[in-house]
Amino acid sequence: MYKSLSGWSITTYRNRIGGIVLKAKELMDKDFVYLNCNDSVVEVSKVMEEIRRFTCPVVNEDKQLVGWITSFDITRGLREGNEKISEIMSSYEEISTIHEDAPARLAVIMTANNKFVTVPVINDENQVIGMIRSCDIVELLSELYDIKVYKLYEAMQHQLKGVTWEELMAASALVSKKTTGNKISPEAYEESIMNSTFGEAIWATGGLEKFFAGLISVGEMVIARKVGRARK
């Protein structure tokens, strides 16, 4: 009646920086409870209270998503004397879902824009295979903000085949001077990124967009310098 899929999975950008897009299935919680249309409202209320969940998917015999239940639906059902989940659930057409292979950032945007607590993750057969919860997103972002900036540069070096660490630091120092107007040596720049976290760098550069624009500029600079030397 109330079956739980085994396993818990939350993969962070710690293992995904460097050009690989984090997918929804890598962020989702695989351990969740699902309901059937004929389940009792009273029994479901007890289960949701026990597992401390505010939302649950409703599926058919093939585990395909057919409805959605929230704690508010349960409260209304108990107040109005409804007996079955099918009487109070939201229909499939009313549910926002995300495909397992879609970029995880889409789930983040959906959650933020619509104030969702949970977004169900589905496969090609429309089967529910996991849940992306707002608490998972907060945990992911917390871990992401603690990543040392040099890890991002290591990932960049890996993507820019044939570029040495010294070349990358030299280009970074030049971009930094161009952006801030302050001269900095490659050695001093390297020391700064070794001690800074991603979160600190975002604040220092004036936002996420500006930080990544800087990284792109570094990549372009190091390639341009390498091409220039090759032509001499």
Structure description:
With 232 residues, the chain is mostly helical. The chain has two domains: 13-143, CBS-domain (Roll); 148-231, no CATH class. The protein is built from ten helices and six strands; from the N terminus they run ααββαββαββαααααα. It has helices at residues 24-27, 41-51, 71-80, 104-114, 134-145, 149-159, 165-180, 186-195, 198-205, 208-231, and strands at 55-59, 65-70, 90-91, 98-99, 118-122, 128-133. The chain has a three-stranded antiparallel sheet. It is elongated.
Summarize the structure.
It is built from ten helices and six strands, in the order H-H-E-E-H-E-E-H-E-E-H-H-H-H-H-H.
List keywords for this structure.
232 residues; CBS-domain; 2 domains; 3-stranded antiparallel sheet; 3-stranded mixed sheet; 50% helix
Order of helices and strands: HHEEHEEHEEHHHHHH
Helix content: 40-55%
Low-confidence stretches: 1-20
The fold-level CATH name of the largest domain is: CBS-domain
CATH 2nd-level architecture of the largest domain? Roll
Specify the oligomeric state.
single chain
Spatial sequence of strands, sheet with the most strands: 1-2-3
Question: Sheet bearing the most strands, described?
Answer: 3 strands, antiparallel
Task: State which percent range the strand residues make up.
Answer: 5-15%
Number of strands: 6
Number of helices: 10
**Structural class by secondary-structure content:** mainly alpha
Q: Can you give the mean pLDDT? A: 83
What is the 3D shape? Answer: elongated
Q: How far is the first residue's CA from the last residue's CA?
A: 73 Å
Fourth CATH level, the homologous superfamily of the largest domain: CBS-domain
| Count of structural domains | 2
